[in-house]
Write the structure tokens for this entry.
Amino acid sequence: MSIEIESDKRAQHLLQTIFGYEQFRDQQETVVSHLINGEDALVLMPTGGGKSLCYQIPALVRDGVGIVVSPLIALMQDQVDALRQNGVNAAYLNSTLSLDEVREVEQALYNGDLQILYVAPERLMIPRTLEMLSQLPIALFAIDEAHCVSQWGHDFRPEYIKLSVLHERFPQVPRIALTATADAPTRKEIVERLGLQQARQFISSFDRPNIQYRVSESSGNARERLLRFIRNEYDGEAGIVYCLSRKRVDEIAKWLSSKGLTALPYHAGLPAQERQNNQKRFLREEGVVMVATIAFGMGIDKPDVRFVAHLNLPKSLEAYYQETGRAGRDSQPATAWMVYGLQDVITLRQMQANTDAPEEIKRIESHKLDAMLGFCELTRCRRQALLEYFGEQQPEPCGNCDTCLQPPETWDASVAAQKALSCVYRSGQRFGVGYLTDVLLGKEIDRIQQFGHDKLSTFGIGKELNQTQWKDLYRQLIAHGLLAVDMEGHGGLKLTEASRPVLRGEQTLMLRKLTKAAAGKSKERQSSRYNNKVDDALWQALRKRRQELSDEQGIPAYMIFHDATMMEMVANRPQTLQQMSNISGVGESKREAYGEAFLEVIAEYPDSGGEEPSDSAEETLQLYRIGMSAEKIAEQRSLKLTTIYSHLAKAIAEGQAELSEVVCLDDTELQAIRFTIEQEESKRLKPVYEALDAAYSYEILRCVKADMYKEG
Ligand code: ADP
Ligand code: ZN
């Protein structure tokens, strides 16, 4: 056996025994094997994509200690704790350690006891550290958050530029740079500044399929809508609520708390101690809602943040993607929820116009804001639009955003827009939305009479719409750039070049219809994860046990087990330690430490028989039986197509569905697939998939295999 195959096997083995995962995800396997072979890599993967394993496993396979450079000092402790939970010997070096603690880590390094060392860049660069490392066997250098070398990004760290030294001083040691920043200019900068011209680039899709994108208009009732959203869909779960100002953060946190939620504020104006404390509670306790300005979030890698809510519009789609990306790192369903209204649009336009930035920058920022506003007013799939903005094409609408789930109605607003624009023009291009609306509605108000605007041809010509509808129309006109907001900050509106064709009736304008607040109810998720009592009780009991164990050790609950791992326990009800190790996320170390404790809990809640329609696979099968296609079921249930096929495969294996109904293959194809599956001894489908030159999807292969090994 060649060395390469042997070390790939070892990587696979470590994945299962240390981390408790069955399979590598997408690119992980190739990256890992590339690094094990001693080559350099640049990895671009979205948040939650699984970057850590890309360097942790090679660090364990290769001789010597793996050095991980990270700018996020506050999180090193957590990263190290998480590794130790899995039985890995890890430590960190940064300015928070005492001299004695530093000595202890150094001693462990010299003794060859450490497998992974996290180090802050400024600490790595001091001669003492470099000198020490040059005397030790080094497995690899991982440069996390590699976009910090970019001088144009907001996370720029000067020390990161010096990291190019690593290449010169340790030419034999492979380096891997990782980032979740997608854009090409940053990528180019990373390559140049870190001397990674020879490195192979691994670029993943930046889609976050488990995040459901939702945007809706607010008409002054944002916080009530937020509360209802949390209560209805994520009661007792963790989430982040972003607000623009510190004042609003304090106010919303207080209000949510008064309604019985655990909501904590976070912004730069709070005393450092309180801020830290709140962050800690958010990480360690279950179900904390963090109400924050954008000062919060960089490097927060809590995997089970179930929602990110925006009560104000972010200033660009880049910011929106990054902020919403903090939801659902564990790949479980999560929601990016946003309300925005007329005032948001006006405020952002004004803020932008009033900065002292050079014209060039202003222009770029203005484009970015336009893109953000355009995103809010979309009538097509939001995910497709978001990914397109980052240069990625997705051929099909996603089925997991509000516009896919509930296509917005549009209406021909050309005539109404003409009236609205004309009213702006005739009243002298200096009044705000409230006043303009009153004129359109023909209100007998002193102010209007003083200005003589009751004599205007637009006075009272808009009675077919009500006040809210006119406001909604004005918001969309501003968002689409047909009206500009005055610089002085009074909210006065002016026509723009773009408005002329509409005003002259040369352009049709299709706009979103205002959604009724009550609409969409039926599409909301259910708050509890299970609509079956026994499963729900077991889930709550597992959470409780997890919290007790994490309190004992003073570590975040998710470090014991992720939600996904516990959900698998609920679904499979393992009875023995052996069965426990088959659960994804249960490695050897955690099985020893916690296996018994969780088995005890599970034993108290025996399986109720799996008859309930709450059984996800059962529900799929029912829909399938009434004639829905797999695609349609995936859409309706907001599940991935892969999940639906795995349900169907299960049904095939249990003899409840026919292979020939589920997949469309002719006999020759079927034979070829069967033959290949038989040839491959390993349980995994990947070799089969590859042997067939990727001609058949994993979904198809899974179903064929299920048919071959079906019961009876
Ligand atoms: P990133 O650093 O890219 O944001 P992480 O490395 O933190 O992502 O991984 C995100 C989540 O996915 C973690 O909870 C991790 O345990 C999980 N994960 C990573 N790789 C796998 C895998 N091969 N199988 C199952 N879960 C995985
Ligand atoms: Zn969509």
User: Anything to note?
Assistant: The chain is about 50% helix and 10% strand. The pocket of zinc ion (ligand 2) is lined by residues 381-383, 397-398, 401, 403-404 (CB under 6 Å). The radius of gyration is 28 Å.
